[in-house]
């Protein structure tokens, strides 16, 4: 494995983890503001996190 691929994989993982962390943080804030909508917020959060993970895996395979 070459150095650019290692750096690329690291950046991909950092970006994906930041994205999922931001989604989780925003979802917790939204649930705190509107507890009655927690089910819908949680479903949207899980779907968004899955899409980010899928994109990260695709980018890792490309790297």
Automatic annotation (TrEMBL):
Q: Where is this site: Reversibly protonated during proton transport?
A: 53
Task: Tell me which UniProt keywords the record has, alphabetically.
Answer: ATP synthesis, Cell membrane, CF(0), Hydrogen ion transport, Ion transport, Lipid-binding, Membrane, Transmembrane, Transmembrane helix, Transport
Q: How does it sit in the membrane?
A: Multi-pass membrane protein
> Out of the domains of life, which is the source?
Bacteria
Respond yes or no to whether keyword Transport is given for this record.
yes
Q: Where in the cell is it found?
A: Cell membrane; Membrane
One Gene Ontology molecular-function label: proton-transporting ATP synthase activity, rotational mechanism
- State a single Pfam family of this protein: ATP-synt_C
All residue ranges annotated as the V-ATPase proteolipid subunit C-like domain in the record: 7-61
GO terms for cellular component: plasma membrane; proton-transporting ATP synthase complex; proton-transporting two-sector ATPase complex, proton-transporting domain
Gene3D superfamilies for the chain: F1F0 ATP synthase subunit C (1.20.20.10)
Membrane-crossing residue ranges in chain numbering: 6-23, 43-62
Keyword Membrane present in the record's keywords: the answer is yes
- Give the UniProt family note: Belongs to the ATPase C chain family.
User: Per its database record, what is this protein's job?
Assistant: Key component of the F(0) channel; it plays a direct role in translocation across the membrane. A homomeric c-ring of between 10-14 subunits forms the central stalk rotor element with the F(1) delta and epsilon subunits. F(1)F(0) ATP synthase produces ATP from ADP in the presence of a proton or sodium gradient. F-type ATPases consist of two structural domains, F(1) containing the extramembraneous catalytic core and F(0) containing the membrane proton channel, linked together by a central stalk and a peripheral stalk. During catalysis, ATP synthesis in the catalytic domain of F(1) is coupled via a rotary mechanism of the central stalk subunits to proton translocation.
Q: What is this protein called?
A: ATP synthase subunit c
Q: Which organism is it from?
A: Candidatus Ornithobacterium hominis
